[in-house]
Structures are given as structure tokens and as C-alpha cells.
Amino acid sequence: MQQLLKLANEADIDALANVMEDFVEVFATELTPFAVALSEQLRDTYLRIVREVLDKNRNEGGDDDFGDYLDEKSITALGVLQTIGTLILTLESTPDVLLHIEAILMPVIQVTLENKLYDLYNEIFEIIDSCTFAAKSISPTMWQAFELIHATFKAGAELYLEDMLPALDNFVQRCFP
């Protein structure tokens, strides 16, 4: 898996993201001891890709329209987010590991929502949904995610309400059983 991540970092090949997701799904039990390290590597890969998108947009003097460059990079970023989501779902029986992973993934959630990377919202909201569902409770880290969802909604992302609803439902269900 580390070789796949290294290759993905070097080449940004979206096909590798699909392979990583399948790998996580098939070898979930074997990867559990390495879940935290894997989450850190996936986070770092995602943040590097997003940083490149944001830097390129700033250098071109663009506004919030990330254009074709986001389209090229978003496929790889999307694959990384899907792999993270699959990993979270495989860890449902290990709440202590999930708590640690939530903290690791908070920068991923934060950079995506704060920079209005709309193409990636669905997967981000799925990750929040998976974390809050699998953990069976709401951690302080996920409350930070809730605040980001709220700020995102208030900042004009009401078109993404449908994507937000499963995560929001978990916040209600887990806090008021």
C-alpha cells in the first residue's frame, strides 16, 4: 500500500486511487493495524494535491473558479477521499482507532470546505457521515466538522444540502438518541 501511495504522490494517476480503494476494501482486516499511518499518508497526499490547485489558482490571479485544473486534479483527489471513506467504514468495530483517524482527517475536511472546493463536497460529507455513523457518538473533532458544515451552508452552499443531510442526521441521532 505504501508503494501505491508513493506512486500516487509521484504521478497523480487517478487509476491508482481506484486500486488503493479496492485494496483497502479487500484487505480491511490486514490493514487495521496500519490504519492510522495509512490515514496520515492519504491526508498528506490529498493536502498536497489541494495545495497545488490553490497555488495554481492564486498564481493565475483567479477567483473561486478553479476551472480545468481542478478537473484534472480533482479526479485524483476524489479517489483519495473515496479511499479514506472506505477505510473509515472498515474500521467501524474499532472506535478508538476511528477517534484518532478523525483528528488526522480534520485538515482534509477543513481545507476542502474553507476553500469552497465544491467538486469534492460530496465525498467530504460522506467522510463526516461515515465517521459519525461508525463511531456511534460525536467526538469533539466531529463537532468542529459540524461547525464547518454550518459555516459552509451559511456561506452559500445550500445547493449541497442534500449531500450534507446524512451527516447532519447523524449529529441529531447521536446527540439526542
TrEMBL record:
Organism superkingdom: Eukaryota
Record field: transmembrane:
none
Q: Which UniProt keywords apply?
A: Cytoplasm, Protein transport, Transport
Question: Which cellular compartments is it found in?
Answer: Cytoplasm
| GO process terms (BP) | protein import into nucleus
According to its record, what are the GO cellular component terms?
cytosol; nuclear envelope
Known InterPro entries for this protein? ARM-like, ARM-type_fold
Q: Which PANTHER family match?
A: D-IMPORTIN 7_RANBP7, IMPORTIN-7, 8, 11
What protein name applies here? Predicted protein
Query: What organism is listed for this UniProt entry?
Result: Verticillium alfalfae (strain VaMs.102 / ATCC MYA-4576 / FGSC 10136) (Verticillium wilt of alfalfa)
